[in-house]
Structures are given as C-alpha cells and as structure tokens.
Amino acid sequence: STLSMISQWLSVNIHTLSEAELLAVIVCMDKMEFLDDKLIQTTERFMKVAAMKVKEADLIGKVIDFCLLLFIIKIFIIAAICDLCDHQRLRSKPILEASCEYLLENALQLNLPQINSISKVFGNLNLHPSNAFKFWEKVEILTESKHHEFPPKDLISLLLSFVYIEKFPVNMMGNLINPNFYDRMDYFAKQNVKFVMSELDILVAAMKIEKSYIQKSSFTSCFNYDQRVFHLSRDLLDPLASIVGDVKRIGIQEFVPGAANNSFYSADMMVFPSVAASLYKFGRSTYAQNSRCMVVLINTPDHFDRSGQHLLGRQAMRIRHFKKMGFKVMNIRYTKASQLKMMPNQVKNYLQKEYDNALLSD
Predict the structure, then answer these.
(1) Rounded CA gap, 318 and 59, in Å?
(2) pLDDT for 196
(3) Residue stretches of the chain with pLDDT short of 50
(4) What is the pLDDT of residue 221?
(5) Is 77 exposed, middle or buried (0-12, 13-18, 19+ CB in 10 A)?
C-alpha cells in the first residue's frame, strides 16, 4: 500500500524530483520488485518528454539498507529504467524506443553498465527498435570496441540477448572461445563459473544452429528442470496420449542432443511418430527424422512479458532453434493447462487445438 501511494504521488509530482532522486526511486522500486500501472504510465511519460534532456552522464543517488549502510548508486537513469523493464518483464514500446534514441545520441558518453542495460533489454523482451539498423550498428561497434572491459558473465548475457532476436555476433565469437577468456571467467565468476559456462554453451550452440558456426566450447552438463513443468507434464500425459493414440509415443523431459548439453535444449514432452521411433537419435545430421517428432514446450508465466501476450526473447529463441532442428513445436500455456486439467474434455480440446496448430506450422 505504501509503494502504491508513492507511485501515485510520483505521477503527480515527478517534475519536483531531481534526476538523482528519480533514479533512487526507480532503483528502489526495481529492487523491491514493485511495479503498477501508474508507475508504468509515469515512466513512459518521463521517457517521452524528458529522456533527451537528462544532462548528467552518471547520476549518483544514495539509498540506505535495513542495516543503515550507505550505498552509492552510480547508475544512469535511462539504464536504470531499462533494468526495471528487464527485471519486471515490462515490454513498453514508448520506454524502449526512447532508450534506443538515447543510446544513438549519447553512445560515446555511456559506460559499460549503461551500454549493457540499454542494449540487452531489447533482446530479452523480444522487441526490435523501430530505428533498428542504426541501433544495432552502433551497439555492435560499442560491444566490439569494449569487449575486453566487460565482465565475462555480462558479455555472454549481452551477446545472447542479441541472438534472441537474430542479431548474430559472429565477429565476437573468437574472443570468447579461447583460454584467455576462460581465465577471465575463473577470475570474475568465481562460484558461478558453471552457470557462465552453461550460458556460453548455449551461445555457441545458438551460433551453430543459426549460422553454422563450427568452433566448439567445452560443453558442460547443466540440467535444472522446473518442477512445476515436470508435474504438469505428468498430468497432461493421459490427455495427450488420447490424442496421439498411444502413451508410449510420449516422453517426458527428453534431452535433444546436437546443440548443447543443457536443459535449455530439452523438450518438456516429446511426441514420437511411433513407439519404435522413441529410440531415434536426434541431432543436426538427422533433421529428416526430427521432422517426424513433435517437441512440446510448457510456457510458464515467467516466459512471457508482463502482459502475458509476448514470449520473452530467450523462449522465442528456444522455439526457433527446435524448429530449425526440424522438429514440430507444440506450445502449452502452463496457467491455462493447470486451470483445465481437472476438466478432462476441456483440457483435451485445448491440447487438440495446440497439437493441430503445431502440425500445420512451418
């Protein structure tokens, strides 16, 4: 209730705040994971009217945590708003378009965190800026010129966000797959080396699938299955079996080799053309066989933007990759299937509709 009142107050009094004070508000709202319609409208209005009038390249705000420790926040306000959109899955065209224009106008004055925050939000939220050609040209120049300054985790995350919306950093890959970069990962990532390597493996696999990139990294095993998806898959097994004709044709959590040894490339469910076909080997060399199978993906609410209408870039790329590998892809909304699973006829009708759509899609 307090945050809602602050949001309401901000919508009326935003003009009374200094840039540093507004930055502090945005950062705190983001850290407390609060976002409502009023704050969205206020932020969009600010971005439309005032984004190009921000004068300071680095704004310094002060916030005090519960332990009364003072932290200095050196986050550029446009970047902070992009981070808010990214973390809260807010796919706001007015905000992102203004961010695009700001980067184009002030590229040389931006530091690494600012470049990272403004650039990656488009891929993560699966949205191309209207001035896409100039934007990506500028971002490519910035990234290539400063790649050695980025922490490895941030650089990999940034390049992955490009691939999400089919902007491929071919020229950058040689800088990632080399011993020096691995040493930097060990130094910067410390306890998160396995996660960073996993993300690098996905990036390399994406380049292999989409651009026939042949260089390999040291693939690592990373299998972190969503238990919500696993339990729903089991609940949907019988209704889906009634559609395909035999429960033995359906597998749960089927790993698809040929990309990366990572749960990102596993099907939540897999429909095989026959029981015997469940023994097929998948991969790049068997695309003809892959086309006989259907990958079933269960999309949880966090796979979509805040409105629930648009898949995020990471999930859109996952679907695109399975299709490029030859599979039919059936998409199931976790929320809708969970609501219908206690009503056999309705859940079967829903699955039948999505199954037919998958068969008809390219």
Answers:
(1) 37
(2) 85
(3) 55-75
(4) 58
(5) buried
At residue 68, the pLDDT reads 28
Predicted confidence at residue 6, as pLDDT, reads 92
What is the per-residue pLDDT for 219?
Answer: 52
| Cβ(293)–Cβ(270) below 8 Å | yes
Residue pointed to by tokens 């020096």: 180
What pLDDT does residue 59 have? Answer: 38
- Confidence (pLDDT) at 52: 54
Quote the CA–CA distance of 22 and 18 in Å, as a whole number. 6
Q: What is the pLDDT of residues 314-335, one digit of tens each?
A: 999 999 999 999 999 999 999 9
Structure tokens at 129: 């800026």
Q: Cα dihedral angle (47, 51, 56, 62), rounded to 10 degrees?
A: -10
**What is the 3-class SS of the chain, one letter each residue?**
CHHHHHHHHHHHHHHHCCHHHHHHHHHHHHHCCCCCHHHHHHHHHHHHHHHHHCCCCCCEEEEECCCCCEEEEECCHHHHHHHHHHHCCCCCHHHHHHHHHHHHHHHHHCCHHHHHHHHHHHHHCCCCCCCHHHHHHHHHHHHHHHHHHCCHHHHHHHHHHHHHCCCCCHHHHHHHCCHHHHHHHHHHHHHHHHHHHHHHHHHHHHHHHHHCCCCCCCCCCECCCCHHHHHHHHHHHHHHHHHHCCHHHEEEEEECCCCCCEHHHEEEEEECCCCHHHHCCCCHHHHHHHCCCEEEEEECHHHECCCCCCECHHHHHHHHHHHHCCCEEEEEEHHHHHHHCCCHHHHHHHHHHHHHHHHHCC
